[in-house]
Design goal:
Blueprint (H helix, E strand, L loop, with lengths): L1 H9 L1 H18 L14 H12 L2 H18 L6 H19 L5 H25 L6 H30 L11
Helix pairs in contact: 2-3, 2-4, 3-4, 3-5, 3-7, 4-5, 6-7
């Protein structure tokens, strides 16, 4: 029992991260399908991935990006491996931004997330154009900006979950009396 407690304390942050990852992927695949507006839903997995890169080390973020990328490849319609490569590139970009800028404010994190989601949508749609499945321009602009705007409120909730799990409030001690 002591060994389990030791490893839970040692890897608590990674365990919580993996649970958040499972929750985000299940939410993306099930519940958010009922809340589509104009056939657009928020990209919770990408928001979770960017939050991973803000809070975790590069190694841990890359492992989680590989998991999210493989999961998106299995469920997606693009060639296998494309989403995995894109997710790894977004983690590296977010880590570079995080190291070069002081990102302690929620507003700056949201703007960074918005930019990464817009770039992700542009990249995916450019690749769709390359494989000869283009999306009309009017619909493309709606998809790019509405999906990014839909993701921002949910990313704030994910941010608060990360803060709660990584920095738990310590309960007051009774021994102070």
């Amino acid at each position: 029992m002591m060994i389990v407690r030791y490893y839970f304390r040692k890897y608590r942050i990674q365990i919580y991260g993996f649970l958040i990852l499972l929750f985000a992927t299940s939410l993306q695949c099930t519940l958010l399908n009922y809340f589509r507006i104009i056939n657009i839903k928020p990209d919770i997995m990408l928001a979770t991935l960017v939050m991973f890169s803000f809070f975790y080390s590069l190694r841990c973020s890359l492992i989680f990006s590989l998991l999210i990328g493989i999961f998106r490849d299995v469920l997606g319609f693009l060639p296998f491996g494309f989403n995995t490569i894109i997710c790894v590139l977004w983690v590296i970009l977010a880590r570079e931004i995080f190291q070069r800028l002081s990102i302690e404010d929620k507003l700056i994190r949201c703007i960074t997330l918005f930019i990464i989601i817009v770039l992700n949508n542009l990249t995916l749609n450019c690749f769709m154009f390359i494989i000869n499945k283009p999306i009309p321009t009017g619909i493309l602009l709606k998809v790019i900006f509405l999906e990014s705007l839909f993701t921002l409120p949910l990313s704030l909730m994910i941010y608060k979950i990360f803060i709660f799990l990584l920095n738990p409030v310590k309960s007051p001690s009774i021994n102070r009396l």
